[in-house]
């Protein structure tokens, strides 16, 4: 049976991550979990250890922070474990675990990367404020236009990577924040690896606060300009 690893970055997700892992285990008990936690002060580590899951590896990073950096740490570890497919997803239940079996089936039909997409037919967003919708739509429009990407949702973190696609994504050496998502798509497209989109309904988190700040948005746009200059 193919090894499937699920990489989940966390920072102050105590209330969400334990419930998410339990739910994922119910849906696909054969999964392996790699949780990369940036030394959360809210007790995330203790909560995860209490679950006593044999299929969970917890990586605590003391001196590093950033979504992209955490994902790269998880991807690298999953490759070391010889995972055939590597899932990335958020810890806050905005990415519904019930979509994962369908995304994995799609990956097995020849896609090197499957993106859980909000912007294809059947996809959508619930409970997002207007500002977040504008930023997300605008970011995807700019990336699609600048990079000639045929992908509609280039910024979603709900993904299934093949081994080859994960290796390409790890070439994003300087993308340590939210910009990692577009860098990974850029690298995978350049490598000629097939990308597919699976429709999902994205539901805004019910517990905790979003980590996306104005500083992160600025860094994202700055990184897009650097990609455009290098392409």
Automatic annotation (TrEMBL):
<dbReference type="InterPro" id="IPR039528">
    <property type="entry name" value="DPM1-like"/>
</dbReference>
<dbReference type="GO" id="GO:0006488">
    <property type="term" value="P:dolichol-linked oligosaccharide biosynthetic process"/>
</dbReference>
<dbReference type="GO" id="GO:0006506">
    <property type="term" value="P:GPI anchor biosynthetic process"/>
</dbReference>
<dbReference type="Pfam" id="PF00535">
    <property type="entry name" value="Glycos_transf_2"/>
</dbReference>
<keyword id="KW-0328">Glycosyltransferase</keyword>
<dbReference type="InterPro" id="IPR029044">
    <property type="entry name" value="Nucleotide-diphossugar_trans"/>
</dbReference>
<protein>
    <submittedName>
        <fullName>Glycosyltransferase</fullName>
    </submittedName>
</protein>
<dbReference type="GO" id="GO:0016020">
    <property type="term" value="C:membrane"/>
</dbReference>
<dbReference type="GO" id="GO:0035269">
    <property type="term" value="P:protein O-linked glycosylation via mannose"/>
</dbReference>
<comment type="similarity">
    <text>Belongs to the glycosyltransferase 2 family.</text>
</comment>
<dbReference type="InterPro" id="IPR001173">
    <property type="entry name" value="Glyco_trans_2-like"/>
</dbReference>
<keyword id="KW-0808">Transferase</keyword>
<dbReference type="GO" id="GO:0004582">
    <property type="term" value="F:dolichyl-phosphate beta-D-mannosyltransferase activity"/>
</dbReference>
<feature type="domain" description="Glycosyltransferase 2-like">
    <location>
        <begin position="5"/>
        <end position="168"/>
    </location>
</feature>
